[in-house]
């Protein structure tokens, strides 16, 4: 019987960062992601989500605070060692289009390959399994430039999965995906967390998708953590107003999850805070 090591897989401890005088900053941001949970990182554009992810992935340097992965300072780990610990899916992949989907996914096996970098049949089997896992197995022999944006995104997710790292960090992985594949993506991440014990930190924009499938949510606003906790704690009409600057009704869905519905008023109608009324049969949070 295996035992899960104590402590969070990822700990961000009072991290601050500035791009320069008068430019955007992170202010004392702290969060944790445990093994076996999916955490959604949400907030409006410019709130600091991608900056924080780049600091976790060591794509940005500087600032203050500490980022700890599996109990060790992230900056003290060698790059190859760190790649075995953390798999990353960026907003936009820079993978050259002169590769097939299978070849692109096999690149994710590089931290596990020998010095010569030759893949084995086992590597190929794991790559095929990763493609099947994201419903992209049929694209294995297709060139990347022949795929749609959503199809390419699923291939790049397979490349992150085949890395087989205990921590998955995903920066807006649902970009370019239709609503079916958005939900399937989050359901896959939830299964990886709950069934395989992975720690998943996922940046997103769709509050309803994240609230339905994430274990915990962190809302950023202007570089600070505005609120963090379970979906029902985090997603309220008041928090949506504070973070996104819109009036919204928040209902309890059929599975007990919060559901956000922006208040849309007739042209010329004046909106007053707290004036939203509930419909029969619906219960606002």
Point out poorly predicted stretches: 1-5, 271-285
Spatial gap, N to C terminus: 42 Å
Strand order of the largest sheet: 6-7-8-3-9-10
Bulk shape: globular
Plain-language structure description:
The chain has 285 residues and is α/β, with parallel strands linked by helices. Helix content is 29%, strand content 24%. It contains nine helices and twelve strands. It has a six-stranded mixed β-sheet, sandwiched between helices. Strand 9 (216-221) and strand 10 (224-229) form a beta hairpin. Helix 4 packs across helix 5 (149-161).
Write a concise keyword list for the protein shown above:
single chain, 285 residues, alpha/beta, 9 helices, disordered N terminus
Task: Offer a concise description of the structure.
The chain has helices at residues 49-56, 79-85, 101-106, 121-133, 149-161, 179-196, 207-213, 231-234, 237-244, and strands at 10-18, 25-33, 38-42, 64-69, 72-73, 86-89, 167-171, 199-203, 216-221, 224-229, 248-252, 258-262. The protein is of the alpha/beta class and 285 residues long. The strands form three sheets. The chain has a six-stranded mixed sheet, with helices on both faces. The protein has a four-stranded antiparallel sheet with strand order 2-1-4-5, covered by helices on one side.
């Amino acid at each position: 019987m295996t035992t899960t090591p104590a402590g969070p897989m990822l700990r961000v401890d009072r991290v601050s960062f500035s791009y320069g005088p008068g430019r955007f900053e992170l202010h004392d941001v702290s969060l944790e992601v445990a093994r076996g949970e999916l955490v959604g990182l949400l907030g409006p554009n410019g709130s600091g989500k991608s900056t924080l992810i780049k600091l976790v992935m060591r794509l940005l340097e500087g600032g203050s605070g500490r980022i700890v992965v599996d109990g060790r300072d992230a900056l003290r780990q060698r790059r190859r060692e760190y790649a075995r610990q953390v798999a990353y899916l960026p907003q936009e992949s820079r993978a050259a289009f002169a590769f097939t989907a299978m070849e692109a996914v096999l690149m994710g096996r590089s931290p596990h390959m020998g010095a010569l970098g030759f893949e084995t049949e086992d590597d190929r089997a794991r790559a095929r399994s990763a493609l099947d896992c994201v419903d992209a197995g049929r694209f294995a022999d297709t060139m990347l430039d022949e795929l749609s944006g959503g199809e390419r995104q699923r291939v790049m997710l397979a490349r992150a999965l085949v890395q087989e790292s205990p921590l998955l960090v995903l920066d807006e992985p649902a970009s370019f995906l239709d609503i079916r594949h958005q939900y399937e993506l989050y359901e896959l991440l939830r299964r990886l967390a709950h069934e395989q014990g992975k720690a998943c930190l996922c940046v997103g924009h769709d509050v309803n998708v994240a609230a339905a499938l994430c274990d915990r949510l962190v809302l950023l606003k202007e570089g600070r953590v505005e609120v963090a906790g379970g979906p029902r704690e985090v997603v309220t009409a008041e928090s949506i107003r504070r973070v996104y600057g819109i009036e919204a009704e928040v209902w309890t869905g059929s599975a007990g999850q919060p559901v956000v519905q922006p208040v849309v008023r007739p042209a010329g109608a004046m909106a007053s805070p707290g004036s939203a009324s509930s419909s029969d049969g619906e219960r606002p949070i």
